[in-house]
């Protein structure tokens, strides 16, 4: 028995669906742009970002009808009055299920669900706090339960009939891969035969963005100039650019051949710190642990899809870790999707795993946008996509609080 990925779904600044995502990656299209005044009102200052396309209730219903017609009416009722992030997450999940050949028509007691992230609705909470500054006001009637991260699990399970185990998994920016690790463990323990893993777009409020800005996490508008805003692994990078994305994977524990890829190994380790600073030893440790768990040597890996957020310290430490682990692997290529997509925070690991699956399926490596002056020499992908088979890939993710995650995928 092995854990395979049989479906994937994506919504990002490159468009709706895997096909649009694949086209954008192959073209090296950058979804990051300068925001218009008021376009992303909860950002602390005028910034750059990579917003997903506009969405309304009719869009969700029509797209769901095209993907999974038997769940469209159910979804319309569940999502009525719901937030944008949930609508995008439902679309990504529907695409993953449809790709796997499911209809979603019947409840499935063997279908688990893991939602990546914590603080999923902080922006909603901030809106209610502002409303309650008027002592005569009241929060939304359903705020008492819609404020909880568990609400995302409830919405997705109600729409898609998930009746197996379910949970949210928070690991800061490593949440996407942490959710995959949890799903792999769920399937290995026999608690379910399949598991839907979903990452929602980030929904921070003004306080969260201001806090990230205060510690130097966000790209410095004064230093961007006319150049690219998101510059993973570049010496001139000044911080990360928010990226809005939803992604989903359907994992199955099966003896059949993988439809998209096999998960050779998935690891999540801690540094034993409460601080946001990256740890070289922790990043090296998780890369070596996942290679050992997969029974592979560094030279067996074709592609490293790096976390690389476009933050000066984070990128330097990650580049040093890659150099230490893969010093004897001359055939690898390193790329980072955040130059194209921005940083999707809790969904980053999932949307970037979908990017890896696309590169495996279509036989190319997407470019490193915004990279001209590397923080250290590595075999980076260039400014344009290259045709190249990818049989085995490592995806990494690192989060504040010492979370180190790594995944090895093997092509079908």
Individual helix count: 14
| Average predicted local confidence, pLDDT | 94
CATH superfamily descriptor of the largest domain: Thiolase/Chalcone synthase
- CATH architecture name of the largest domain: 3-Layer(aba) Sandwich
- Oligomer state equals single chain
Low-confidence stretches: none
Q: Spell out the helices and strands N to C.
A: EEHEEHHHEHHHEHEHHEEHEHEHHEEEE
Number of domains: 2
Strand content: 15-25%
The count of β-strands is: 15
Per the CATH scheme, the topology name of the largest domain is Peroxisomal Thiolase, Chain A, domain 1
* CATH domain class of the largest domain: Alpha Beta
Report the helical percentage: 25-40%
Rg from Cα: 20 Å
The secondary structure category is alpha/beta
Q: Can you tell me the overall shape?
A: globular
Q: Summarize this, please?
A:
The chain has 412 residues and is of the alpha/beta class. 35% of the residues lie in helices and 19% in strands. The two termini are 15 Å apart.
């Amino acid at each position: 028995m092995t854990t395979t990925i049989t479906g994937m779904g994506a919504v990002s600044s490159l468009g709706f669906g895997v096909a649009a995502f694949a086209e954008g990656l192959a073209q090296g299209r950058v979804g990051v742009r300068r925001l218009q005044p008021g376009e992303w009102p909860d950002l602390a200052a005028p910034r750059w970002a990579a917003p997903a396309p506009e969405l309304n209730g009719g869009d969700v219903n029509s797209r769901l009808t095209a993907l999974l017609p038997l769940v469209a009416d159910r979804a319309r009722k569940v999502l009525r009055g719901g937030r944008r992030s949930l609508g995008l997450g439902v679309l990504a999940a529907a695409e993953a299920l449809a790709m796997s050949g499911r209809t979603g028509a019947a409840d499935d007691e063997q279908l688990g669900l893991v939602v990546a992230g914590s603080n999923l609705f902080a922006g909603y909470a901030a809106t209610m706090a502002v409303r309650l500054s008027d002592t005569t006001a009241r929060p939304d009637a359903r705020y008492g339960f819609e404020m909880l991260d568990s609400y995302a699990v409830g919405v997705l399970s109600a729409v898609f009939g998930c009746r197996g185990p379910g949970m949210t998994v928070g690991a800061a920016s490593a949440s996407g891969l942490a959710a995959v690790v949890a799903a792999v463990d769920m399937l290995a323990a026999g608690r379910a035969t399949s598991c839907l893993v979903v990452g929602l777009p980030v929904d921070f409020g003004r306080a969260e963005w201001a806090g990230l800005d205060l510690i130097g996490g966000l790209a410095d508008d004064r230093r961007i100039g006319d150049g690219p805003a998101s510059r993973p692994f570049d010496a001139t990078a000044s911080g990360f650019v928010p990226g809005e994305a939803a992604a989903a994977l359907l994992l199955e524990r099966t003896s059949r051949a993988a439809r998209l890829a096999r998960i050779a190994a998935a690891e999540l380790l801690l540094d034993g710190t409460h601080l946001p600073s990256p740890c070289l030893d922790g990043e090296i440790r998780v890369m070596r642990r996942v290679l050992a768990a997969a029974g592979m040597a560094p030279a067996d890996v074709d592609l490293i899809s790096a976390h690389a957020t476009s933050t000066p310290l984070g990128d330097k430490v990650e580049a040093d870790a890659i150099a230490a682990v893969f010093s004897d692997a001359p055939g690898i290529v390193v790329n980072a999707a955040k130059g194209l997509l921005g940083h999707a925070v809790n969904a980053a690991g999932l949307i970037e795993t979908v990017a890896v699956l696309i590169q495996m399926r279509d036989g190319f490596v997407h470019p490193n946008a915004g990279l001209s002056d590397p923080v250290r020499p590595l075999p980076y992908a260039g400014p344009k996509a290259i045709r190249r088979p990818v049989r085995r890939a490592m995806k990494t993710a690192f989060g504040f609080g010492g979370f180190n995650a790594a995944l090895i995928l093997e092509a079908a």
